[in-house]
Design goal:
This protein is mostly helical and 144 residues long. It has five helices and three strands.
Length: 144
C-alpha cells in the first residue's frame, strides 16, 4: 500500500513530531545547510533553464555540453548580481550531476529525429515535462 501525501488523512499515517535544537544542533544544521545549498541551487538553476528551453524547434537538439554551458552562463550572471546564495552553484560538475539525475529519472532522454532515429550527436530532449515541473517545485521549496 502506498501513502498519498496529498491525502487529507495524512496526519493519521504520520504523526507530527516537533524537535527543538540546542546551540550545537543549530551549528550542525547550519553547516549541513551550507553544504547542500549549492547543490540545491545548481539543480534548481539547471531544471528551470531546461524548462525555459523546452519550446525548442524539433530540428534543434540540446547537447549536454550545450546545456551545461548555458546553465553556467546564467549562474555566473546571477552570481555577479548577487542573486545566488552560493557562488559554488556555478560549478559545471554540479550542473552535470543535475543532468545525470534528470536522465536517471527519465526526464531527459536521448533525442530522436522525426523518423525515430537518433541524431548523430549526443543530443537530449525532455521526455516528461510534468515531472520536470514537479522537481522544480520541490527544489524551489528547498531553496526557500
Amino acid at each position: 500500500m502506498y501513502l498519498d501525501v496529498d491525502d487529507d488523512d495524512w496526519d493519521e499515517y504520520v504523526p507530527v513530531i516537533e524537535y527543538q535544537l540546542g546551540e550545537e544542533g543549530k551549528a550542525s544544521l547550519s553547516l549541513f545547510a551550507s553544504v547542500l545549498e549549492p547543490l540545491v541551487e545548481s539543480y534548481w538553476l539547471t531544471t528551470t533553464q531546461l524548462l525555459l528551453l523546452l519550446p525548442l524547434s524539433p530540428d534543434h537538439f540540446l547537447t549536454e555540453s550545450g546545456l551545461v554551458g548555458h546553465v553556467q552562463t546564467i549562474a555566473k550572471a546571477k552570481a555577479e548580481k548577487a542573486q545566488l546564495y552560493r557562488v559554488e552553484s556555478c560549478s559545471s560538475d554540479t550542473i552535470r550531476n543535475a543532468i545525470k539525475i534528470l536522465q536517471d529519472r527519465q526526464v531527459l532522454v536521448p533525442a530522436q529525429n522525426g523518423d525515430g532515429s537518433t541524431p548523430h550527436t549526443q543530443s537530449l530532449e525532455v521526455a516528461n515535462s510534468n515531472l520536470l515541473v514537479d522537481i522544480i517545485k520541490q527544489l524551489t521549496l528547498l531553496r526557500s
